[in-house]
Amino acid sequence: MSNVLSHAVTETLHLGEKAKDGAFHIALTGTADYISHMGVVALTVAAYNEDLPLCFHFFVNSLSTLEKGRLAQAAEMMKCPIEVHLIDDSAFKTLLLSDGVAAFFYRFLVAPTVAPVTDRVLYLDGDMMCRGSLKYLADLDFKGNMVAVVSDRKEELQMKRVHTKRYFNAGMMLINVKDWMKENLFDDIVRRAEENVARVGNRLSHHDQDIHNEMLDGKCLFIEKKYNYLYNLDRQSLFKKQPVNEDYHRQVIIHFAGHAKPWHSWVQAWPVVQEYAAIQKKSPWKDVPLVPPKGHKNLHQAARTARMQGRYGEMISLYLKYLGAKA
Questions:
Q1: Of 248, 259, 266, 302, nearest to 44 (Cα)?
Q2: How far apart are CA 320 and CA 324, in angstroms?
Q3: Is residue 1 pLDDT above 60, yes or no?
Q4: DSSP 8-state secondary structure symbol assigned to residue 264
Q5: Which of 184, 186, 221, 255 would staple 145 via disulfide (CB 3.0–4.6 Å)?
């Protein structure tokens, strides 16, 4: 069977200097409107890893002249190259579920695209912040495993749901590119995604993270959670227990894996978000505005956050908007 994603990457643009020998390759994926977030992740990595030669790979479905200029500026600031791999979304049509979003599957393209230049690549989601050295990952012995990963929240429930021995969060994957390609995992994962659609129609069931977990069951090296620390900016309702986050200063890669993201206007008082914002303010994306609460979920989150921070006038206004949006 032919792999429908074999030609999904239509072009690669090279920005910045040439990659150094032995560079540590890092991949980020997203739609065109996510480039600013991916860019900030890259800048946080570079800020804490000046001793490590880096090469970034951005997988995106389109690139405006403005964003190309910003990425070139970022490459110059970081003194390392950015390779932009342009993706044709139409290649993904046999993989799509009811949300119709091809971007969830872009990470399938990472290993085959970087295989000619490296034996390992670190995949990172665009809602992350690095605040420590990645040397451990650059030097890690895979011990015959395909990936190094961190377990997901509520792992036992997830394991029962998808019938695997363990369950990891796919927002960070250190990929053993050499063995991934040798074992034909690129073809395997695309086939699994297509079979999933055939099985569930296009219901929003069994997304890319589940498919990764099923395919890589028993082939994962689980590492400390500080390399993909799931940090929750969401607020629960008044009578529910609030999420407890460990001290973010002790984490190496922070993953804002909840509903609220560090570019949302209502979470700017969090110290960890202020640190993220300080890096954005020095970046080529410093003028990209914060995202205000839109839709009832965001309005509800913003209202709860205002309540917890004692901003009661704002809380009432947001609750009224939330009720209006729900009606």
A1: 248
A2: 6
A3: no
A4: B
A5: 221
**Any residues with CB less than 8 A from the CB of 6 and at least 6 apart, and which?**
none
Name the pTM for this structure.
0.93
- Whether the pLDDT of residue 203 is over 90: the answer is no
pLDDT for the residue 104: 94
Say yes or no to pLDDT of 314 above 80. no
Q: Which of 24, 15, 20 is nearest to 48 (CA)?
A: 24
CATH of domain 9-227: 3.90.550.10
Q: Compute the residue count for the chain.
A: 327
* Sequence-distant (≥ 6) Cβ neighbours of residue 51 within 8 angstroms: 133, 135
Token pair in block for residue 196: 């999933």
Compute CA distances 319 → 262, 263, 295, 322, whole Å.
21, 21, 12, 5
Tokens of 271: 């110290």
**Cβ distance 41 to 54 under 8 Å?**
no
Tokens 């239509």 locate to 10
Report how far residue 285's alpha carbon sits from residue 74's, in angstroms, rounded to the nearest whole number.
9
pLDDT of res. 316:
76
Would you state the structure tokens that stand for residue 39, as one six-digit string?
A: 């860019």
Q: Is the pLDDT of residue 238 over 70?
A: no
* DSSP result, 122-183: EEE-SSEEE-S--HHHHH---TT-SEEEEEPTTHHHHHHHHT-S--EEEEEEEEEHHHHHHT
